[in-house]
Amino acid sequence: MPGTVHVIGAGLAGLAAAVRLATRGVAVVLHEAAPQAGGRCRSYFDKQLNAVIDNGNHLVLSGNTTMREFTRTIGSEHTLTGPDRAEFAFVDLESDERWTVRLSEGRLPWWIFDKHARVPGTKWSDYLSLAPLLRAGPDATMTDAMRCPPMLYKRLIHPLFLAVLNADPAEGSAQMAGAVIRETLVPGGKACHPLIASEGLDVTFVTPALAYLEAKGARVMMQHRVRELHFAADGSRVEAIDFGDGPEPLAVDDAVVLAVPPNVAASLVPSLTTPDEYRAIVNAHYQVPPPPGCPPMIGVVNGVSDWIFAFDGRLSVTISGADHLLDESRESLALRIWEEVARACKIPSTPMPVWQLVREKRATFAATPAQDKRRPGAKTRWQNLVLAGDWTATGLPATIEGALRSGNRAADLV
């Protein structure tokens, strides 16, 4: 067993590593540069809305096994809510058609043979076009690897994988898309029940993790930014960490889990190659109660919006791959999105409710084949330094599941 493990970064990857280590009885010190933990998966009080909101709307699925294990360990699994089957509502704002995709629970995809369960205007044979993604090579984009019929692509594949990859399928990695399909659609609907942190990301993933760590005797240090890692002259290990007051030596059996954003990791670790292209996400929040019967989430086709989420007293929208919206004025964009929300949810568009718009310019690394090749593994050439983060080589895109899995992997390597 190692001595003290310093986990640098309290995003989900760092929290996962710290929780796994603390569960094993390892002494853990968790360092976070920000005033609060959670990284990009955090909640905060918004004065405009007079409510606690998440910095982004994150969807997880029942088949995300690492996520389920993590929330079970920290005692928050009950805060994830959603339907008891794999149902996804959609609306086409151009034609005003509405439909619900209903996946069959087992491994056999009976749903594609049911015209009331699959996407309108598609045939069962259309869905076979997804199969090549399961054996795609590292250089292929989704549209390179598959020949998807237009109706299926526009009404399911594009909105689904734009959200999963935070990249348009035309540039998105086919290999990463295939990994997601292998863990969700292949096992069947039982792995695809949508789950939402209905009380907020903090309540599900962050606060209970910190409470768990405290109960296990871990030290948590907020606003404690690492300035430099000092490496031994023989190149074998990290020998000290500088948090701004000079190098703090590590014991021979101490270790470091570096769970910071890729650009920060690259500045701390010599010659480390990391993803260096990013994609934006826009989230809009409207202070209006969802109408009766509103689905918990609605996929939007032929709109600027991608997905609408219904929360208690609030409707929220997520737009992935949103770099093209970064320069539009807040007021103009918020109004455009609201008009789509009103149509999709069949509620009056006037007056426009109190709103908030959050643009995250570097929300995730670009999930392209080229950027995927820049993702490092967890192991480094230093025996007591490992990496964690959704940007490391998890095989998955930048997701909650990928972040947690990377944290577990790092903890297992210490």
TrEMBL record:
Q: Give start and end of each Amine oxidase domain.
A: 12-414
Q: Which domain of life is it from?
A: Bacteria
Q: Name one Pfam family in it.
A: Amino_oxidase
Q: One GO molecular function term?
A: oxidoreductase activity
In terms of PANTHER family, this protein maps to: BLR3003 PROTEIN, PROTOPORPHYRINOGEN OXIDASE
Q: What is this protein called?
A: Amine oxidase domain-containing protein
State the species of origin: Pandoraea oxalativorans
